[in-house]
Write a structure and sequence with these properties.
Blueprint: H1 16-24, H2 39-44, H3 47-51
């Protein structure tokens, strides 16, 4: 079976401002930072994000 519902159907925010608001509402205890360890993911992230830790 293939899942083909749009994100809005399952109430997953897709607008950057909505995602940012949800993250800003979390406390440090509720947020777990997980670095990207998979080389496949690293390959698609632009180098500028690895060079500037403030991004």
């Amino acid at each position: 079976m293939r899942w083909n519902h749009p994100a809005s159907y399952v109430r997953i925010p897709t607008a950057f401002k909505d995602i940012r608001l949800l993250l800003d509402q979390r406390s440090e205890a509720q947020f777990q930072w997980t670095p990207y360890e998979d080389p496949i993911i690293w390959a698609i992230i632009p180098d500028e994000f690895f060079q500037n830790p403030n991004i």
